[in-house]
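Researcher: Here's the sequence for the chain we discussed earlier.
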Amino acid sequence: LKAVPVAVLPWLVPFLDLFRRAFWQSTRPCAKLRRYAAALTLGGLLVLSMAATKRENYLLPLMPPLMLLLALAVEDRLTGWLQATPRGRWYRIGDWTQATLLVLFALLPAAATVTYLHNVTVAAMAALVVGVAAAAAILCATRRRREDLMLWGAGGAAACFALSALLVAMPPLEPRKDFSPFLETMAAELPVGSSVSVVGADETIEAIVPFITGRSVSLLRAEDLRRPATTFSDEYLPAYLLVQVKRREPDPTPDVEDRYQRLRQVELGRGRTLSFWRRMR
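Model: Thanks. This is the structure I predict for it:
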């Protein structure tokens, strides 16, 4: 539940508007649609909250109806601008708060890349120029209460944030994670029809190894490799082994080194390392 406000950023003010009684009045446009979208969002949130494991990506199915509600909340605010209806001070504070959030989202990825990572590229400078233009449109629209200018500014801010985050900020922060070359080479060395024995597997490995190699995954615990040879014959161990090491998790490599020889290793991102091992004869 606490992840929902973060998931709707930068549209935090329209999200708070959903808790205003006026938003749900039957005289509002699309009143039935509002109640239907709310039922989808709250029902899905209740079901997901009952799950034993809770991860932020589980919120993705709730995003379409929730985004529809936020769009209606934004429309309510912009309609108030067109009608020139007197608004209270807190309502205008909400307008300026939302404008500030949009400006930050438009400028932050590219500005942070240039300032903190010192990665000055043509793409970063172009993103800054577009972000400044979108920010100027948003601030001008908020001051003059111009709906048309706000739509252009908000659209430009959204496009600038998405493109600069993907093309400017992410490449220097996180290297590309491509499992295919490593897993395809590994699969070519395995006996025909054999499964892939894995130590340290997680949900990602359990899904991507069968997808890339066409082989099933056999899970092996690091504890099995620590058993004495007198009580646990090496013949029981698989001939080949795939070992995954993740940041802040126990490293099974010392247990593997006693009976296996490392053939190759690859680092995928900053928190995941895969290594391929063959049992020593």
